[in-house]
Structures are given as C-alpha cells and as structure tokens.
Specification:
This protein is of the alpha/beta class. 30% of the residues lie in helices and 19% in strands. The protein has one domain (5-53, 70-192, 215-311): Aldolase class I (TIM Barrel). The chain is built from 9 helices and 16 strands. The strands form 4 sheets. Strands 3-4-7-8-9-10-15-16 form an 8-stranded parallel β-barrel, surrounded by 6 helices. The chain has a 4-stranded antiparallel β-sheet with strand order 5-6-14-11, with no helix packed on it. The longest helix is centred in the C-terminal third of the chain and has 15 residues, at 273-287. The protein is globular, with a radius of gyration of 18 Å. The site of 3,4-dihydroxybenzoic acid has 14 residues, from loops.
C-alpha cells in the first residue's frame, strides 16, 4: 500500500501531519508519541523575536470545539534553531517550519535565516492568525498582499512553500488562486474561524482578547466545504485542516480534494491521534482494495454538475 506523496521533491511518508501550534516544536511530546509515524510536523509559528503571546485566559472549551487566543507565543526563530532544530533533525519525518510575522520583511528575514539551516524541509506561511493585530490576518484577508508575500518568499526558497489560508474571507478560492499564481507549491485550508464565548455571570468575554480562533469538530463541515471550493479552483495540492479527530474524518477531507491532512485540536485530546489516523488511513485504503492512499484524493462523486460554490469560481 503506497502511503507517501511528494511535494516539490520532498517525500512525505504518509498523508497525515500535525498542525501548527498543536504539537509545539516536536520535542515536548517525544516521550509519549512516535513522531516518526507522521507524514510531517508543522512547528508552532516562528517569528523573528520571541513573543509572550496574549494574557490569560487564552483557551476556552466550546461545544465540540476549542477557542484559542495564544497570540503567536513562541521562542523566536533564533532559539528555535539553537534549541529545537537539533532534536528535529534526528526525526525521520518532514519538518515544516511555520512562519508568522508582522511585515513582509519579517517573513523574509525568518525564512532566509531558516534557509541556511539543515533540518527544515519546507515552510508553511501563517498569514491568518486571528488573535494578533499585526499577526498576518490583515495580510491573509487582502488578496494582493497575499499574492505579494507569496511571490516574495518564492524568490527566497526552492523548498516547498505552503500558504495557510484563513476562512475569514468571502471567497477563499480567490486567495488560493492568487497564491497559486504567485508560485506557492500548496495551500493549507483552513486556519481557525473567528469565534467568541461569553461568561454570562461575569458578563465578560471568556478570552482576554474577546474573540479567538475556533477549532475542533465544530468547524469540520465548514473546513470540508472550503477544501472542496479550493480544490475546484486550483491545481496545487491542498493540506486539509479542520476538526479531524478520526480516520473517517481524514478520508472525508481526501475525498473532497485534500492531498494530505493536518491534525490539530485532536492532539490536545490524544497526542497520538495523528499517528492513529495515519495507520487508520492505510488500513482503510487496504479494505477498500486500493493500492495507493492517494486514490482517495478528490474521489468524491456527485450527480450535481455545478455546485452552488461554482457559481462564483
Ligand atoms: C494563533 C491562533 C490560531 O488559532 C491560529 O490559527 C494561529 C495562531 C495564535 O494565537 O497564536
């Protein structure tokens, strides 16, 4: 059973990765999980300088979901290289450095510094943090800025360049087209939806920043629709993200057009969730009589020739 896939010459051993911000820098969970069973690891977003992030409270559980406002807390790219990359280099899995920044120059500086390092296999660009005023959402909701950042970063690397899109726009497919035109190798669809939870007794928002990013099973149907929409619009591969908890969830994402998936919120419930989904996908494909997990990609059948989505594609 073939499980692997290749993106710009980089081979992922299977189609299941852990999503940025949900697996630290790959080392915190090393005693309880086997990261080598993953297709890849997306690191927590890295910025040029370390960031403390937002004040508490930063995480709230919601029905079938989680609302977070971490605020891009991270150790900064220099400490990442010194303290985290040596361990990541020992792993037999693809390492994708996720980058967040408040200016195009900062995105370029972080990527350029990482380019000089062994052990980083590719980049995922976070232009869509919902929790930091200067954290990229103003880029990620502006199509021309999105195009410009992608084009600029493309000139700086020959490694896989993946742009993580926000659902907090009217038509996500227009953004996917812009990054495809600008030379991205893939898109991650999708980042968190903006949400709010209220403490009715205190009459206050539960999160310190009022709103946060909603993730988990609550957003899965939205994410599936976004992946489907993007898959109709672009040829580059899609990393499907949004509330995947089980093998069956991952299969849904592949069927609507994702080439691979990223597991996020499930890691907080079970740090081995992604490894279980990877094994489960293989077993599912075997049971279906397939020879390659990739045969599931885009294999959803429908009698409807033109979905409502396609009226704006
Ligand atoms: C952060 C939170 C998110 O939900 C997200 O998608 C990206 C970044 C954060 O606050 O760090």
């Amino acid at each position: 059973m073939k499980e692997s896939f290749i993106l710009r010459g980089v081979e992922f051993k299977n189609r299941v990765l852990v999503a940025s911000g949900t697996f630290g820098y790959g080392d915190e969970l090393k005693d309880v999980t086997d990261a080598n069973a993953l297709g890849g690891i997306c690191t927590k977003s890295l910025s040029w300088k370390p960031r403390d992030g937002n004040p508490p409270r930063r995480i709230v559980e919601t029905p079938s979901g989680m609302l977070n406002s971490i605020g891009l807390a991270n150790i900064g790219v220099h400490s990442f290289i010194q303290e985290k990359l040596p361990y990541l280099r020992t792993l037999d899995t693809v390492i994708i450095a996720n980058i967040a920044a408040s200016s195009i120059q900062e995105y370029c500086d972080v990527l350029t510094l990482l380019e000089g390092q062994d052990g980083v296999d590719g980049y995922e660009i976070n232009i869509s943090c919902p929790n930091v005023r200067e954290g990229g959402l103003n880029f990620g909701t502006n199509r021309e800025m999105t195009r410009e950042i992608t084009a600029k970063l493309r000139t700086l690397t020959q490694k896989p360049l993946i742009i993580k899109l926000t659902p907090n726009v009217t038509h996500i497919s227009e953004f996917a087209r812009a990054v495809e035109d600008a030379g991205a190798d893939a898109v991650s669809v999708m980042n968190t939806l903006i949400g709010l939870a209220v403490d009715i007794y205190a009459r206050k928002p539960k999160l310190s920043t009022i709103t946060g990013g909603l993730s988990g099973p609550a957003i899965k149907p939205v994410a599936l629709a976004k992946v489907y929409e993007v898959a109709q619009a672009v040829k580059i591969p899609i990393f499907g993200i949004g509330g995947i908890m089980t093998t069956e969830d991952a299969v849904e994402f592949l069927l609507v057009g994702a080439s691979a998936v990223q597991i996020g919120t499930a890691n907080f419930v079970d740090p081995s969730a992604a490894m279980k989904v990877a094994a489960g996908l293989k077993a599912f494909a075997v049971k279906q009589g397939l020879t390659d997990v990739g045969q599931l990609v885009g294999a959803m059948e429908s009698n409807v020739k033109v979905s409502i989505l396609q009226s704006w594609l």
